[in-house]
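Subject: for your reference before the review

Hello V.,

The reviewers asked for a structural picture of the protein, and I figured it would be easier to keep everything in one thread rather than splitting it across files. Below is the amino acid sequence we used in the manuscript, unchanged from the supplementary table.
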Amino acid sequence: MTDNSPFKLSSDDENLNRWTSLGIDPTIPHSARMYDWWLGGKDNFAPDRALGEAFMQAIPSIRTMARENRKFLGRAVRYLASEGIDQFLDIGTGIPTEGNVHEVAHSITPEACVVYVDNDPIVLAHARALLVSGGPGVTDYIHADLREPETILADPALTGTLDLTRPVALMLVAILMLLDDDEDPWGKARTLMDALPSGSYVTITHPGLDFDPEAMEAIKEAARQGNMTVIPRVRADVERFFQGWDLVEPGVVPVMDWRPDDEPLFGQGPAYYWAGMARKP
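And here is what came back from the structure prediction:
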């Protein structure tokens, strides 16, 4: 994918004044930019890379985790589109890369409508340039935070793009980990889920504490020192997000085991993510 954005960051962090004018603090790491670095992108700053390196010290396969998470997103969207879903609400979009939700959905259903949500101004800048539909489907972007689900649901970009009387696929991929328990991520997700009609889906990935508790606690502490919240959770806590909805087979499983369509990345380490999808009765 060619990046035509006028906001492209250079690898040596030049033009920081341009970014600070958009409300970005380049001295504080951000999950979207750290994830971008793990995927080989250049839209990140030195603090993002430093914290990303700290995560890699705890889990050397962290880049495998990021790639497998991205591959899961593509599989999930293809499954949803094949089930007739043509509306997507993707929260925690991240910096655009290959295989964005609207690209995958439009390859199957050209008229699919997608609303992206993120709270990083860099994502906003790229979204305006890159997250654009090339066909009959509509895409839009909301600069908002998962911590305020009511704000997301009331935004004109959502109400003008998605029809909430018809099924919607809510994508919460690698985002719920950014909320601490006392912020009630289960309640935030449920507010969004309750707003969707019968036949809607929710898709979630979440780092699993029970894969390697020592490594995950190290990541949690590294994030805390970088002024970021990252909370790995055990499988039962991830399953709580789906309560009352019908899990799609194979249920909540390691991310690479959710309907794999290719060979795993042998020799590149494990991917400590739980993944699942459920349909609203």
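For the response letter, the relevant points are probably these. Confidence is low (pLDDT under 50) at residues 1-13. Residues 52 and 190 are 30 Å apart (CA to CA).

Happy to draft the paragraph if you're swamped.

O.
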